[in-house]
Design a protein that fits this description.
Blueprint lengths: L4 E6 L10 H15 L3 E7 L6 H4 L2 E2 L6 E5 L2 E12 L4 E7 L1 H4 L16 H19 L5 E5 L6 H8 L10 E6 L12 H4 L19 H10 L3 E4 L6 H8 L5 E2 L5 H12 L3
Length: 268
Amino acid sequence: MSSKRILYITQEIFPYLPESNISTISRHLPQAIQEKGREIRTFMPRFGNINERRNQLHEVIRLSGMNLIINDTDHPLIIKVASIQAARMQIYFIDNDDFFSRKFTTEDESGEEFADNDERSIFYVRGVMETIKKLRWIPDIIHCHGWMTALTPLFIKRAYADDPCFKDSKIVYSLYDDQMKKPFGPDFVNKVLLDGIEKEDVKDLQGETDFAQLTNFALKYSDGIIQSSENVDPQILKSAQESGIPFLPFNADFNSWTDEVNSFYEKF
């Protein structure tokens, strides 16, 4: 079992973005799991405030060049890669000029969240899926970090359900204390209707979709849930604990927690 392949999909990683709960865990958990004998791949968006020269990002031409259609618009998919030498980890970056060229992550200089964060999230998750297909790297477990990854469980269980790369993959979703403040608009539900996804599958996204709805929707299609922050929205935490889905509670001791996460993966 030690050779299981773990795919990490996250919205931020230190040192490419400032230290936060998500960026710190996304930096150190994959390394710890890799050191326990797992094979890993790690993805994040190439936000415009990431210094490409300092961090030595470079485009992977053989993986780039595809277009993804979102809301009837073509968006070129660009794949870049960099290495965290101390951890012997490669990080893959999903890039696109329409979505990720602005010099911010999910909100502007005044703290206003971008109106197209829903489409950025869709593009990011689909970009990861298509890149994994090109790599022909079949993950046993897909571990998601941050609300920008919340559509991953739906896409894997519906749109990519029959794809050889993902048909046997299990989804683990981490709960954090970070929240998006601006709900996605009522047209969000139509933007996620890829082939294989029926309206019945997304009925929980009707109207505006706030953070709690989006998170609970992600949990609905997940196979495991990990509490990765001490302070998680109480209602979301209660829903997770009562869902019947395997649940790993928070542990402030990181070394002990990584052992627990590694064992948690074995459930699948």
